[in-house]
Design goal:
Rossmann fold; 2 domains; eight-stranded mixed sheet
Length: 392
């Protein structure tokens, strides 16, 4: 039996985040398919402060052993943002080193790194989720065992730091969620390990009752849906501006679900529902006229795939290569570059039920073909076994 150590900054059923959810989905499915999986993570639940939330020690979730280690220091996001703004400004003199920036980024857990360094011979291979954090950068540095990395990378300042060369070039294989992500990383680094377009899996729920969400949240009018973190940097300002104009001509709502980290305009038709159950989320996607993903930087956008899985078309930011890849390969939505184009794309979908239904169906076919969990785990399992057998 192949013994796998998974390294990720946060982990748990109630932890919200793309890389974190990916790590849990893959860990549980690898464990269920015959691998022996142990997760090394921190006690943090909140990625803003890295505040210790869970108890240190060992627990088990759906058969996967979880070992949590305390975070040494909480993060002050205001200080971090100020320092980062200066650090990544090419016109400024660097007041800190790249290593010091990684420490500020966190979550710093020296006990986690030390434990893996001391106990790594108990494992055949390590899997790291996301390139960006202390837990990946520092642990890879001390690791002698085989490793693979899910970078979940997109174009952003930290990926251009010199120390990222070792992070991307040391692993024996890199697994990518999209072709755009793989191309980005290949263009930036001289990759020695294997590069594999693994994608990720989506739970395709059929026979979803689209009225369930409406009943629970009192939604009467047709609605557009945004699901994800509601924060600056996600392109929501363009969506809000466009919706004001859309609302003037159409009795339609804009429903927002997810964690609110920025102010939401007080405008007719904008409805914030917070976190919802998985059943309500599927129902919302099923019942929406369309979903909208306005973010300019995504490494996958699971919500786009969830929308397709409910046969609902998606409007996406054309500046994001990953989102454009989904649209080009599937035909399940339309792009926009600004608020005027968003309005135009929405009108194209809204005024033609036939076109909307067709986009929904071919979006579903795309997800079913490329993002079934059985196929994803097969694509991941084969190289993991081969690397483990070759290196040990």
């Amino acid at each position: 039996m192949v013994r796998i150590g998974v390294v990720v900054q946060r982990y748990g059923e109630d932890v919200i985040g793309g890389a974190e959810t990916l790590s849990r989905d893959i860990s549980e499915r690898l464990n269920a398919s015959g691998f022996d999986v142990t997760v090394f993570t921190t006690t943090a639940k909140d990625y803003i402060t890295w505040k210790n939330h869970y108890k240190s020690g060992e627990t088990i979730l759906k058969g996967v052993v979880i070992r949590r280690f305390p975070v040494d220091v909480e993060r002050d996001m205001d200080v971090f943002n100020t320092v980062s703004s200066s650090f990544f400004n090419p016109n400024n003199k660097k007041d800190i080193t790249e290593e010091e920036w990684i420490d500020l980024q966190g979550p710093v857990s020296t006990k986690l790194v030390d434990t893996i360094q001391d106990e790594q011979d108990k494992f055949d291979i390590f899997i790291f989720f996301t390139y960006l954090y202390y837990t990946t950068v520092k642990t890879l540095k001390v690791l002698k065992k085989p490793s693979v990395l899910f970078p979940t990378a997109h174009e952003e300042p930290p990926i251009n730091m010199k120390l990222m060369k070792d992070v991307f070039e040391k692993p024996d294989a890199l697994f990518f969620l999209t072709g755009a992500e793989m191309d980005l990383v290949k263009n930036k680094f001289s990759l020695i390990g294997r590069t594999i377009l693994s994608r990720t899996g989506v739970d395709i729920k059929r026979n979803v009752d689209e009225s369930l969400f409406r009943r629970h949240y009192g939604i009467v009018s047709p609605f557009m849906l945004y699901a994800g973190r509601i924060e600056k940097g996600k392109g929501l300002e363009v969506l809000f501006d466009a919706f004001v104009e859309i609302r003037k001509k159409n009795m339609i709502d804009l429903v927002l679900m997810g964690k609110k980290l920025m102010d939401i305009p007080e405008s007719d038709g904008i409805k914030y529902v917070g976190f919802v159950s998985e059943e309500d989320k599927a129902s919302a996607f099923r019942g929406a006229v369309c979903s909208v993903q306005p973010s300019p930087m995504e490494s996958l956008s699971i919500t786009t795939l969830e929308s397709f899985s409910q046969e609902t078309p998606v409007l996406v930011n054309s500046a994001c290569e990953v989102l454009m890849e989904h649209i080009k390969l599937s035909g399940g939505g339309l792009p926009f570059g600004n608020s005027d184009e968003l309005i135009e794309s929405f009108n194209t979908i809204y005024t033609s039920r036939n076109k909307r239904n067709l986009m929904g169906r071919i979006g579903f076919d795309y997800v079913k073909k490329y993002y079934s969990w059985d196929e994803v785990i097969r694509r991941i399992s084969i190289p993991i076994r081969e690397i483990s057998n070759k290196k040990n």
